[in-house]
Specification:
By secondary structure, this protein is an alpha/beta fold. It is built from eight helices and eight strands; from the N terminus they run H-E-E-E-H-E-H-H-E-H-E-E-H-E-H-H. The radius of gyration is 20 Å and the shape is globular. The relative contact order is 0.11.
Length: about 260
C-alpha cells in the first residue's frame, strides 16, 4: 500500500509539472515597405485554445531584452505576445543621444511607424494561437507613446497599457476604440503636470475608457532593471528601477486586460 501511494504521489507531481506553463519563444522576421523588422514571439504551448494577443513596444533604446522579458511574462499569464521592432533591422541604441535620434525619427515619420505597428499587429493576429479579434498593446516610455498614439488614431485595439510613458496630445481623438491605462511615476521629471492635465482632459472629452495611475515617489523607467545602471552611466538622475512599482503596475495591467478581454 505504501509503495502504491508513493506511485500515485509521483504521478500526481508529474501531472502538475506538465500542467505548468510551457512558454515557447521564437524570433520572427517580417518586412514592411522593404525594411526587415525583427520581432520576438512568446506563448504558452500548454494552452490549447486561442487567446488574446498583445503587442509589446520597446523603450527608446530599441527592441532589447527588456521588451523580450515582458513578452515572456505575458506568455506566462496566458497571452501570446509579440515584442515588435519599431526602428527596423533590430536596431538598438547604446547611448541616450542615439536613442533620442531613433525615437524622434520614428515620431517625425509617423506614417512609417504606424505602418510598422500595423504590420506587427497583422503578424500577431495571424499566429495559430491568437484570437484575432482580441488584440492589445503595451509600451514602455517611447513604446507607451507609440501605443497611445495608435489608439488615439482609431487603431483596432481592445486595450493599451503605457508604462512610464510620455503623453502624446496628437493626433486628435477619432473613433477611439481602445481602453487605456497609463501608469506613471509622480516624480518622473520628464512629465510636466500640465501635460498630464491636458492629456487627461482630452481623454475625458473624447469619452474614452481611461485610467491614469500616479505612483507616488516613483521616477522614470521603473520597470527596467537596468535603469539604475543607465542613470549612473549617463548621468540621468530621473531613471530608477523600483521593484514594488514594477510589480504593482504589472498586476494592474493584468486586471485591466482581464476586464477589456472579458476574461
Amino acid at each position: 500500500m505504501k509503495y502504491f501511494l508513493q506511485l500515485v504521489l509521483l504521478a500526481a507531481l508529474g501531472f502538475a509539472a506538465n500542467a505548468q506553463a510551457e512558454v515557447q519563444t521564437q524570433e520572427i522576421e517580417y518586412t514592411q515597405s522593404g525594411t526587415t523588422l525583427k520581432g520576438f514571439l512568446a506563448y504558452d504551448s500548454a494552452i490549447k485554445t486561442k487567446r488574446p494577443g498583445i503587442l509589446v513596444v520597446h523603450e527608446w533604446w530599441g527592441h532589447n531584452e527588456h521588451a523580450r522579458d515582458r513578452a515572456r511574462m505575458l506568455a506566462e499569464v496566458g497571452y501570446t505576445a509579440l515584442a515588435v521592432d519599431m526602428y527596423g533591422n533590430g536596431k538598438t541604441a547604446d547611448h541616450p543621444k542615439k536613442a533620442g535620434e531613433f525615437a524622434n525619427a520614428a515620431f517625425k515619420d509617423w506614417e512609417v511607424s504606424k505602418a510598422r505597428f500595423n504590420k506587427a499587429k497583422e503578424v500577431l493576429q495571424s499566429h495559430k494561437t491568437v484570437d484575432a479579434e482580441l488584440i492589445g498593446a503595451i509600451g514602455f516610455c517611447f513604446g507607451g507613446a507609440v501605443s497611445i498614439r495608435m489608439a488615439r488614431g482609431g487603431a483596432d485595439l481592445d486595450g493599451v497599457v503605457a508604462f512610464h510613458s510620455s503623453l502624446p496630445l496628437q493626433p486628435a481623438i477619432t473613433n477611439m476604440k481602445a481602453s487605456v491605462l497609463v501608469i506613471n511615476g509622480s516624480q518622473d521629471s520628464f512629465l510636466k503636470p500640465e501635460t498630464v492635465g491636458s492629456f487627461s482632459s482630452q481623454m475625458v472629452a473624447g469619452n474614452v475608457d481611461f485610467t491614469y495611475m500616479n505612483l507616488a515617489g516613483i521616477k522614470h523607467s521603473f520597470t527596467n532593471k537596468r535603469a539604475d545602471e543607465f542613470s549612473k552611466k549617463f548621468s540621468i538622475p530621473n531613471l530608477q528601477y523600483n521593484r514594488q512599482a514594477d510589480e504593482r503596475s504589472w498586476s494592474a495591467m493584468q486586471k485591466f486586460f482581464k476586464r477589456v478581454f472579458n476574461q
